[in-house]
Amino acid sequence: MTAPGLNGEVIHHYRLRLTMTNTYKPRVVVLTGAGVSAESGLKTFRDNNGLWENHRVEDVATPEGFAANPALVYRFYNERRAQLQQPDVQPNPAHKALAELEQALGEQFLLVTQNVDDLHERAGSKRVLHMHGKLLSARCCSTGRAIPWQDDFDDTTECRCCLPGEQMRPDIVWFGEVPMHMDDIIMALAQADVFIAVGTSGQVYPAANFVAMAADSGARTIEINLEPSQQNSLFEEKIVGQAGKTLPEFVARFIQDYC
Q1: Residue 228 burial by Cβ neighbours in a 10 Å radius (0-12, 13-18, 19+)
Q2: Could you give phi then psi for residue 128, rounded to 5 degrees?
Q3: In a shared domain, residues 123 and 33
Q4: Is residue 231 domain-resident?
Q5: Do 116 and 236 reside in the same domain of the chain?
Q6: Phi then psi for 165, rounded to 5 degrees?
Q7: Are residue 32 and residue 80 in the same domain, yes or no?
Q8: Residue 78, domain extent
Q9: Cys bridge to 219: 59, 110, 165, 214, which one at CB 3.0-4.6 A?
Q10: Residue 251 within a domain
């Protein structure tokens, strides 16, 4: 069933793992992608006017690219970090709606994001897993430890967490690297009553497999997207429209019915 906006039938029939009581709240896992951040004015990797336009993926988003030309990679992510901290880049209604859903569900809620910005946190979300890393942190090339970082840095910037002289890299999962928090994500998907994907293309793995994993565990699956993703046919329900408009409506109805 495809709807141009919120459909009252979209948020019914989620699976209950426990005996139904008046106090039961469903376990909800939400996956967000670049479409959510794009509505806050951030460029996305896969848009025609996005950040890949003047750079090859291999040059700025692989370990090999970093080894070959670290100055280019540092500059690329320094520019992205600066853009994220511009005053006009703020959480949009979709970010705020997910923070409200977390507040209503508490520990029954988990937000998994492919986005490397901090807009979910700024909107009030706390139960967030960044599977592709964070722009506002840097990772020690020696220890792998990540530390908060808001300024520019390059190969002359010494790591703050270990012996002087160690190099830092962007705390970003590059192509060919394993996404972060996968054990926690897989466990959450196996226990979910509802899985919701918002603003995702369905092109990047392993996130593209999450809908199948959740469905195999019995979860109800819902896609909220500006246009159908590559995994659209795997979702039981679809809501078509801007996340900033459709998600607040969906969340309000969901909280009213199930929280």
Answers
A1: middle
A2: -125, 130
A3: yes
A4: yes
A5: yes
A6: 100, -15
A7: no
A8: 57-88+134-172
A9: 214
A10: yes
95 is catalytic: no
67 and 124 inside one domain: no
Sign of the Cα pseudo-torsion (61, 64, 65, 71, in order):
positive
Contact at 8 Å (CB) between 120 and 113?
A: yes
In tens digits, the chain (259 residues) has pLDDT values of 444 444 444 444 444 444 344 567 999 999 999 999 999 999 776 555 545 657 888 899 999 999 999 999 999 999 999 999 999 999 999 999 999 999 999 999 999 999 999 999 999 999 999 999 999 999 998 888 999 999 999 988 888 777 666 889 999 999 999 999 999 999 999 999 999 999 998 888 999 999 999 999 999 999 999 998 888 899 999 999 999 999 999 999 999 998 8
Instruction: Kindly name the residue from 12, 130, 132, 181 that is annotated as catalytic.
Output: 132
Identify whether the C-beta of residue 28 lies closer than 8 Å to the C-beta of residue 110: yes
User: Residue 190, exposed/middle/buried by CB under 10 A (0-12, 13-18, 19+)?
Assistant: middle
